Each structure stands twice: as structure tokens, then as C-alpha cells.
UniProtKB/TrEMBL annotation:
It comes from the Bacteria. InterPro entries: DUF7305. Pfam families: DUF7305. Residues 243-352, 354-407 form the DUF7305 domain. Keywords: Membrane, Transmembrane, Transmembrane helix. It comes from Tissierella simiarum. The chain crosses the membrane at residues 12-33. This is DUF2807 domain-containing protein.
Length: 430
């Protein structure tokens, strides 16, 4: 009886131990499976993180390589709201990237996905306003077309569109185009153009309109009219309704002690002359402007310092410079057409938002840049330019000449409407 009880007890103990082992084994198995799942999930989470990071890196790298045109387009899209980037494949994973702005800074948010596991990362790129660098490397650059039927060009030419050569012009330089097939010329002319060639223009060029300053308010009713034996020296800032100098009379502007600003509604020179004394700056703000034959501004004894004078013209009537008119200064034209003919001459830069600039007769623009991205610029007769030309369409006919002279090109004078671009540099992970 005792033996049976002992055997029963042993069986029960064995069963208990077996049950405990099964429970312990099940626990250990579940623990190991959970650990394995957690480990696998963690591994996928890490992979998803690095997929997301790769997405950020790819997008950041692309942004850092953008040119100004591409950056401008990106900023325009960001100003409208969040920008969704196309899905990026990274190995077995995918990265979905969105861009947003916080002030000037750019937020890159990337969500990486491996299977059903996701992770996200955010990087901030630092935004900085950058002044656009205006590159002028050609004797002529047109945003649309260049038409050459005669004349002489010393220096390279370039265009976003096409170049059409007829007649027998002389081109001592290469021709740069986005599409090299847009160069049209007779075979006989191309055969003699042997020292130069057609070159690929790598990127489309943009040249913005000029940003004009705010013109001072002019409520003056004062008329300044000089002629004959009149002799006047102006030594301070003045507003005029009319400023008129006639009959070979000289008006002196004395800048010895300070810069001077003359604000004039109607500016007339009828064989009249403006002579600058001193070395400080003289600025004209002019409405309508009429310059008669034989007149001059800062052009004394066949010379003058063009950097000393700025003439801002916002009238609508065409500005005509002809009949041996001489101007030494920088001429800014907001709206009007500019017509030069006879022996009219500008020693300095012409910067215009107008629609037309014409050089005919024996007129010339020397020691300066013609910057008129909205204008059709035409050379006929013996019109000449020494510096460089930026225009919408450029036509060269007759005996016109364009001589590239980088020493006479000062791009700091160009304050364009969108001359600052928001650029981004690498920042930090958030």
C-alpha cells in the first residue's frame, strides 16, 4: 500500500514538473519570438530611418546644385504652400519628401518606409538672400533674336533663341546658342568664319528689368530759363517745374562741397550746356527731356567723368539724342524709347526698361554698357557701341559696330527688380 502511494506521488510530481517545463518553454519561446519580432522591427525601423535620411540627402543635394532660375521657381512654388517631391526609391525602401518654408529657412521632411515600418526625419536648410551675379561675357546677348546683315562685331555673341546672318557682317568671335541648330547663315559666309565656331550655351540666361528708385515728389512751380549772356552756378539741391538752357549758354553745377540732386519736371537743352564743377555726385530726376542739337551735359573739352552723373528719366515721350549732342554720364530710362542719330554721343552706360533703342547715323555709346532686356536694339548707319549689349532683339545693319570692352562694363550699376535670390545652404537635423 505504501509502495502504491509512493508511485502515485512520483507520477504527480513528474506531471507537475512536465507542466512547469511546458509553461516555461512556452514562455521562453514566446519571449524569443517577441524578441525576434522586436529585433526585426527595430532593424526595419533603423532601415526606414536611413531611407528617410537618404531622401533628405538626395533632395538637399539637388537644391544645393540649383541655378538661380531653378531656385526662383522653387521659391515661387514654396510661396504657394507645401511642395511634394516625387517618391524616391532607396534600395528596398521608399522615401516620401515634402518641402515647406519657415521664414527664409527651408524645411525638408522625409518619411522612409520599409515594408509596413516607417520613420521620419526633418532637416532645416538655412535660407540666405543672395544678390544675383550678373555675368556679361558677350559683345551682344539677346533674350530672343540676333539679326546681322552687315557691320562689325568684335567679341562673342549669344542668345536664348536664334541668330540669323544675312548680307556680309564681320563677326570676330564665337556664337553661343542653347540650340546650335538655330544658327542660320549662308554656307559661303560660314566658310570664311574659320577662326571661330558655334558654341553650346549651357543654361538659359535671364536679365531682369531695372529697379528704379522712388522719385522725389516735385510740386515746384519754379521755371529756370537761361540764355545769351546768363551765367549761373547751382550749389544745392533744387526742384524745378522747367529747366531750360538756350543759345550756347553754360550752367555750372558745383559739387565741390556735396552731392547735388536736381528734380526737374521738364528738362530742355537748346544748344545749352551743363558743366560740373567738383568731384561729388550729380543726380538728375527728370520727367520729359528734350535735348537740342549742339547741347552737352558734363562733356567739356571732349571729355567727362560718366560715373559722376546719373540721369533718371521717367517720361513717356521718346528721348532723342542727335545733332552733335554729347552726354557724359549714366542714363537710366524707365519707359521711353531712345533714338540716337547724327553725331549724338553718350559717354557712359545706358540702362533702360523701354521697348526700343536705336543708333543711326554716326552716333555712339562709348565706355559703357547698353542694358535693355525689354528692348529691340537696332544699329544702322555707322552707329557704334563700345562695351557690351544686353537686349531682347538686336539688329545690326549698315556700318554699325559693337566692340566688346570688359573694362567699360560695371554691373554694379544694375539694380534689377529681382536681383536678390533666396538661396539655401546645408543646416541641421531637427
Amino acid at each position: 500500500m505504501k509502495m502504491k502511494n509512493r508511485k502515485g506521488s512520483t507520477l504527480i510530481l513528474t506531471l507537475l514538473i512536465f507542466v512547469v517545463l511546458i509553461i516555461l518553454g512556452t514562455f521562453i519561446l514566446n519571449f524569443m519570438m517577441n524578441e525576434n519580432r522586436a529585433s526585426l522591427r527595430y532593424q526595419r525601423k533603423v532601415q526606414a530611418y536611413y531611407v528617410a535620411r537618404s531622401g533628405v540627402t538626395s533632395v538637399e543635394s539637388a537644391i544645393l546644385k540649383m541655378n538661380e532660375v531653378e531656385l526662383k521657381k522653387l521659391n515661387e512654388e514654396l510661396d504657394k504652400g507645401i511642395v511634394q517631391v516625387d517618391e524616391i526609391i532607396v534600395g528596398e525602401g521608399k522615401a516620401n519628401v515634402v518641402l515647406d518654408k519657415d521664414g527664409d529657412n527651408l524645411i525638408i521632411e522625409s518619411r522612409g518606409k520599409i515594408g509596413k515600418v516607417e520613420d521620419a526625419i526633418i532637416k532645416i536648410m538655412i535660407g540666405e538672400q543672395s544678390t544675383s551675379e550678373i555675368n556679361i561675357e558677350h559683345a551682344i546677348f539677346s533674350l530672343e533674336k540676333i539679326n546681322l546683315s552687315n557691320g562689325l562685331i568684335k567679341g562673342d555673341i549669344g542668345t536664348n533663341d536664334s541668330i540669323d546672318i544675312t548680307g556680309n557682317p564681320t563677326l570676330e568671335g564665337n556664337a553661343y546658342l542653347l540650340n546650335e541648330n538655330n544658327f542660320s547663315t549662308p554656307d559661303w559666309w560660314k566658310n570664311k568664319w574659320i577662326n571661330y565656331s558655334i558654341k553650346k550655351l549651357e543654361n538659359k540666361r535671364t536679365y531682369e528689368l531695372i529697379k528704379f528708385p522712388q522719385y522725389p515728389i516735385n510740386n515746384s512751380t519754379v521755371d529756370f530759363i537761361q540764355g545769351g549772356s546768363d551765367k549761373t552756378t547751382i550749389k544745392e539741391n533744387k526742384d524745378y517745374n522747367k529747366f531750360e538752357v538756350n543759345s550756347n549758354t553754360i550752367v555750372y553745377i558745383d559739387t565741390t562741397k556735396n552731392d547735388i540732386v536736381l528734380n526737374i519736371k521738364n528738362f530742355h537743352l537748346n544748344n545749352g550746356h551743363i558743366v560740373v564743377l567738383g568731384s561729388n555726385k550729380l543726380t538728375f530726376y527728370v520727367g520729359e527731356m528734350i535735348i537740342g542739337a549742339g547741347s552737352s551735359i558734363n562733356y567739356f573739352n571732349l571729355a567727362g567723368n560718366p560715373s559722376q552723373i546719373s540721369i533718371y528719366h521717367n517720361g513717356t515721350s521718346a528721348l532723342n539724342i542727335s545733332g552733335n549732342v554729347k552726354i557724359a554720364g549714366n542714363l537710366y530710362i524707365e519707359k521711353a524709347k531712345l533714338n540716337m542719330s547724327g553725331s549724338g554721343s553718350i559717354l557712359g552706360n545706358v540702362l533702360s526698361n523701354g521697348s526700343s533703342i536705336s543708333l543711326a547715323g554716326n552716333s555712339d555709346i562709348t565706355k559703357g554698357l547698353i542694358y535693355a532686356p525689354n528692348a529691340n536694339i537696332s544699329f544702322s548707319g555707322s552707329g557704334k557701341a563700345y562695351g557690351a549689349i544686353i537686349g531682347k532683339i538686336v539688329d545690326l545693319t549698315g556700318g554699325g559696330e559693337v566692340i566688346f570692352d570688359p573694362q567699360n562694363i560695371d554691373t554694379s550699376l544694375i539694380d534689377s527688380i529681382s536681383d536678390s535670390t533666396l538661396k539655401f545652404r546645408s543646416g541641421y537635423f531637427k
